[in-house]
Each structure stands twice: as C-alpha cells, then as structure tokens.
Design goal:
The protein is globular, with a radius of gyration of 24 Å. 46% of the residues lie in helices and 19% in strands. It contains 12 helices and 11 strands. With 381 residues, the protein is of the alpha+beta class. The protein starts with a helix and ends in a 14-residue tail after the last helix.
Amino acid sequence: MIVELDQMKQTILPYKDTLKELKGSLDLENKERKIEELERQMEEPGFWDNPDKANAKMKERGAMREAVDGFHKLSTQYDDILTLIELGEEDDDESMVPEVRAELDEFIAELEELRIETLLSGEYDNCNAILELNAGAGGTESCDWCSMLFRMYSRWAERKGYSVEVLDMLEGDEAGIKSVSFQINGMHAYGYLKSEKGVHRLVRISPFNAQAKRQTSFVSLDVMPEIDDSTEVDIDEKDLKVDTYRSSGAGGQHINKTSSAVRITHIPTGVVVSCQNERSQFQNKDKAMQMLRAKLMILKAEANAEKLSDIRGEVRDIAWGNQIRSYFLQPYTLVKDKRTGYGTPDANGVLDGKLDPFITEYLKWKSTGGAEVGDDGEDPE
C-alpha cells in the first residue's frame, strides 16, 4: 500500500460528515424549490415590466443556483477522489499521488469557500459594497495611509474579480488622500467587506519625517450595501442640507466648469455623503441619496431601532484605542485584528489585497457571538 494515498484517504473521509452539515446549512431543498419558483416567474409575461424588481429576482436566483451547483460539485469531487485513491491502492500505482493530492487540495479549498458563504446570510450580504475612507488626525501621514488602504481594497477587489468605481475623492494637501468614497461591485461584496468597517491603525517609520521617527496613523472605514430605490428608509427632505460644488480630478472641461458634484448632510445624525463621479448634478444627487439611505439604514439597525438622533453619539473617534486592526511595518511586520486575534507577519501581502483570511476569521468569529479578543499590539510611543 502506498503510504501517501492512505494518508490522503484518512484526510478526506471525515469530510463526509462536513458535507452533510453543509447541506443542512445551505438548506438545499428549499433553495431548489425557490429556484424553480423564480424560473416560473421569469417565464411569465410582464416579468421585465419592472426592471429593478426583475434584476433583483435574477440576482437572487443566481446566488442560490451558485450555492446549489457548488455543493453538488463538491459531492461529486468527494466521490471521485475516493475512487482515484482506491484505484491507486489496487494497482499500487505511485504515479496517482500527485493527481490525488491536487484534487484533494482543490476540494478542501472550495469546500471552505462554500462554508464561508453559508455565513453570508444577511439581508444585504449579496449586494455591492460602498466604502468610505477618511484620514484621521496626522496630516500628510494619515492621508498617505488613506491612499494605501484605498489601494489595498482595490487590489482585493481585483483578486476577487470585482470592479471598483470611485464616487468621490478629496486629495491631501501634500500627498495621499483625505477622503474617498468608492463602490466595489460583485456578488457578496458587502457580505465580505462589512467585516472591514472601523478604524485602521498604521505603525511605521515615517517617510515624511526627516528624523525617521516612528509614526502612528489612523484612518476610518465605513461600509454600506448598495441598495435600490425600493428599500424604504424614512427621510424627511427638511432634514437635508444639499450643497453643490465643482468636481475635481479627471473628466475634461465639463467636469471642471460646472457645479455637478453633490454633498448631502442629514442634519439630525450629522451623516454626510457626497458623489462627483456621475456626469450630471441630478445623477450625483441620486447616487448620494442612495448612499444616505444605506448609511441611515445600517445606523438604525446597529442602534437596535433607537432614534436616529441618538445614533451619531456612538461613533468612535479615529484615534488610538478604537482601532479594529493594526498594521505594523516597523520595527517588525505584523497585521493583527483586535476583534478576532488573527494576525500574520505578511504585512506587505495584506496591503497588496490578501484580506481573505481576515474576512474569513471575522465571519467565523461573528457567527460564534463575537467576543472581542482585545490587544492588537504594542502601545504607540
């Protein structure tokens, strides 16, 4: 008997129970019935009379179909791997080892990915995500950190096959970005990225300091789902302050000469949203209102339906002690999450978009109750 094949057999056998548990978590029978129901609706006359509603149903069907097909593929893979192992053992064929190992590694990776998706059961988890980064106190240093985080999330989106659309950006006075709003489009984008909401802390030797002193910088990240107009959020027009201003950045003469950018302030909560990416003031206002509805919806949910006027006081400062994660570049490299306790020395990899381990650990942590671990590294000097 080839030892490697026997070891791989012992590795895969316990996954039979894992597949059984996953089938229950996915609620496959109900998903398959719902898919059939949606497909019948899609064949009815007038299905596309309301494009927004039709697209939402198509998206819902696609997500469920992906889960069902993913599980069936894993079940088939499980049986195929066992068959390959048995064939190799019968023929005492050592050449089967690399093929079986490759199949086994792929099976485990895809199984873990599907298990994580079962944790994305929130009402808006399958939506696109809108992110807002804001530099904290610290001038150029914090603005540079803001631009590094913008790149990190853009690279993560690229790795996932998602698209990125910048909605609004305010550049730093000397370097970097003071604030940026951008949308990441892709299935479950919000479900994954909601784990990133909070204050992010960077510790490094400052490239902007001639004395090469260690510097600590903070940037806050807000994350909200892209919601459609059918989502009801009670907003009184009298509570809104709408400002228009000239768009900045690329865009040609039109974008520089007209006040097409829009900033909306919700006076009771102090929530501010802005958009300058669209070509007209009307389109920018429409997108900004969509962002405002999403932000107020989340704030209300987080406050357990308390009055919106009470919510703003719960927002934490962009400063030491309020961070969710710390990124150390000097005197050693480490990225550590304060909530889950997960960390990695591959700081450069994380800043290049390798965020999935942190997202996975957060989703697991949240599903078990989410008790914060605490210390995420040394205090700043």
